[in-house]
Amino acid sequence: MCKICEQIETVKNFESPMEYIDTLKYIQKLVDSGKFQFRFLKYETDKVLNEDGKWVDDVITHKIECKTCGQIFNCTAITYRGGGSFEIED
Question: 83-86, long-range: CB within 8 Å, 24+ apart, which pairs?
Answer without folding.
Answer: 83/13, 83/14, 84/13, 84/14, 84/20, 85/10, 85/11, 85/12, 85/13, 85/14, 86/10, 86/11, 86/23, 86/26, 86/27
